Amino acid sequence: MKKQVVVIDDDESYVYLLQRKLKSLKEEISFSSYPTGKEAIEYFSSLDSESRLPDVVILDLNMPVMDGFHFLEKFRKICDSHKFDVPPPVLFVATSSDVEADRHRVAKFQLAQDYLVKPINIERVAQALRTA
Amino acid sequence: MFKDIFESSPLALILVDIQGKMKFVNREAQILFGYTLSEMEGQPIEILVPQEIRGHHPNLRADFFRAPSSRSMGRGRNLFGVKKDGTKFPIEVGLNPINSPEGRYVVSSIIDITARVKAEEKFRTAVEAAPNGMIMVDSQRKIVLVNEQIEKLFGYSRNELLGNAIETLVPLEFRDRHPVYTDSYMKSPSPRAMGAGRDLFARKKDGTKFPVEIGLRPYHGPDGLFVISSVVDITERIKDREKLMARNEELQQFAYRTSHDLKAPLISIQGLAEYIIEDIQEKNNSEVESNAKKIVTLSQKLALLLEDILILTKSDYINEDRKEIFLSDIVETAKQKFEISATQNGVSIEQLFAHTKPLLSQPTVITQIIDNLISNGIKYADPKKERRFVSVKTFNDSSSFHIQIVDNGLGIPLEKHSEVFGMFKRFHLDKVQGSGLGLYLVKKHVQKLGGTLSFESSDQGTIFYIVLPL
Q1: What's the CA gap between B389 and B391, in Å, rounded?
Q2: What number is the average pLDDT over the span B71-86?
């Protein structure tokens, strides 16, 4: 079965780059992206316990409308509501700013497997996809 | 024997009978008042009393003989003696009744306190001259001295303070604890600042609390221990400190966000360029072209961001002379500047001027304000609306010049209204991202011109209100 990757990032060029990097992996991947946290939350809210969750989520922090932190807050609530029977997908934060305060804020939600600084090492995502 | 002792006393002594006649005057008293013995003996004591109370003095004397006791004269009043040459000088007088078979007498001992009064005056002058509020309290925490600064600072007159506990000036919530602190200070007094590391507050007569800095210094006087406090109102200092901290915070934000916003497009440019190299080798021309276009867009975005950052960092240093501003020129120029994006978004730029007085202000600053707001109105036009516009309106009253930038665009989401003038705030997902610095700059500029900036926004559109002093 194809592995599913969801990217949440408002930077179209970056989404394109990520998609190409993922294509270069051996893995068969289906790829979808959301431009802000808002659209991503709408997508996750529309899922039910029968739906298949993505295997990996790659989340940007700095986005308009709903930023990565706000997304994590909402996504935490969705996960805590036991909406899904399965554990939440592997989530990577991918941001261009390497700031201690942001790492702490992200860590508080206990959702991100890693905090990656752009340009990210795609091998980290590849590993996660292999074990997913 | 008795006379010898009297005579050789270092104090000026005068023996007065019940009629107020001087029966005996010792050498010291003669020297003090400048009379010879014969000039004094048998004369009424009143010749030594200043003219203005001479008439009243016999009554006071009679009062004393009615209830004689050893005491000092004229408690709480300033006493003066008069020399033979008419000079008035400050004195302290002790009274001791004597009952002898020949009758009742009083021995007055007189001390010239000119030197002491002068020293006190010097002290008082120094205290009054101090730029700080000065308060002296005794060991019972009673206020014994305040200067004019204290009266101004607290709104009490000195008579309302003298004799009252120092706690009068302490905020209600600390009043209970204050005596404990004072007592512990009195036990080991040393010059130091009060409440090191704590924020101190004082209370005005009207109940207002204000932050203070207080220095303490003990004074061991002949009447015991006193504490002199200097009080400084630090309201302004705290405001400045807060401003500074806010500026610092802002600067950190700025450094953090600029580095982020500059880095992100660079990373993309690098990645795209790498793929272009790859695609050229594979002769995938359409992909090369598409990625090269993306690089152009990203570079443009970077250039815009850099320009905004530059304008922002320069904004503190722009200091132009006030000139008459021709707003129609500014709007016309803006129409040309934003022609492409306005056409793309189908937005018309309009003006409706109703001001009767000219606006005198800084041209570059005003231009940047208007440009930013017009460009926002174009960028965030609402494609669902048929006729899209940004309109610049003006009018004035006697004291202010009003500029309103009205659009019928997307509006700012209600939950973001508090963040509108923050740095790096973007509220809409747009193809050509703004730097997020525009409104922050506008706010800074309007403040710089001494004006106010506010806005109203809904899904019907946004109005920015600028009010500038005329």
Answers
A1: 6
A2: 86
Measured CA to CA, the distance from residue A78 to residue A69 in angstroms comes to 14
- Tell me if B42 sits within 8 A of B1, measured CB to CB: no
Q: What is the DSSP string of B179-218?
A: HHHHHHHHHS--SEETTTTSPEEEE-TTS-EEEEEEEEEE
CB contact under 8 A, A119 and B271: yes
Integer Cα distance of B217 and B144 in angstroms: 15
User: In Å, how far is B466's CA from the nearest CA of chain A?
Assistant: 26
Helix (H) or strand (E) holding B98: strand B88-100
Question: For A113-118, which contacts have Cβ atoms below 8 Å and span 24 or more sequence positions?
Answer: A116/A92, A118/A14, A118/A94, A118/B263, A118/B264, A118/B267
Q: How confident is the model at residue B379 (pLDDT cuts 50, 70, 90)?
A: confident
From chain B, the residues in CB contact with A64 under 8 A are 426-430, 433
Among B268, B291, B428, the residue with its CB nearest the CB of A11 is: B268
A63-120 confidence digits (pLDDT tens): 888 989 999 999 999 888 877 777 788 999 999 888 888 899 999 999 999 999 988 9
Pairwise CA distance, residues A127 & A113, whole Å: 12
In a mutational test of the B interface, the residue from A8, A10, A13 whose CB has the highest number of chain B CBs within 10 Å is A13
Cβ-contact A88, A128 below 8 angstroms: no
End-to-end CA distance of chain B: 93
Query: Which helix H or strand E contains B394, and what residues bound it?
Result: strand B388-396
Whether chain A has a CB inside 8 Å of the CB on B343: the answer is: no
Inter-chain Cβ pairs, chain A and chain B, closer than 8 A? 58
Q: Is B34 left (phi over 0), alpha (psi -120 to 50) or beta?
A: left
**Joined tokens for residue B98:** 């004597």
B332 phi, psi to nearest 5 deg? -60, -45
Percent of chain B topping pLDDT 90: 58
Read off the pLDDT of residues B161-205 as tens digits, 9 standing for 90 and up. 999 999 999 999 999 999 998 888 988 888 888 877 788 999 999
Yes or no, beta carbons of A17 and B259 under 8 Å apart:
no
- List of chain B residues whose C-beta atoms are within 8 Å of the C-beta of residue A11: 264-265, 268
Per-residue pLDDT tens over the stretch B258-275: 887 888 888 899 999 999
Q: Residue ranges of the alpha helices (H) in B282-357?
A: 285-315, 327-337, 339-345
pLDDT at B3: 79
Unique residue bearing structure tokens 């007592």: B183
ipTM: 0.81
Residues of B in contact with A17 (CB under 8 A): 268, 271-272, 275
Inter-chain residue contact B428 with A97, CB threshold 8 Å: no
| Token duo for residue B13 | 């002594």
Q: Which residue of B has its CA nearest to A97?
A: B260
How many CB atoms are located within 10 Å of the residue B76 CB?
4
Q: Please enumerate residues of A whose Cβ is less than 8 A from a Cβ of B.
A: 10-14, 16-17, 20, 35-36, 62-65, 95-97, 99, 118-119
Task: Name B368's bridge partners.
Answer: none
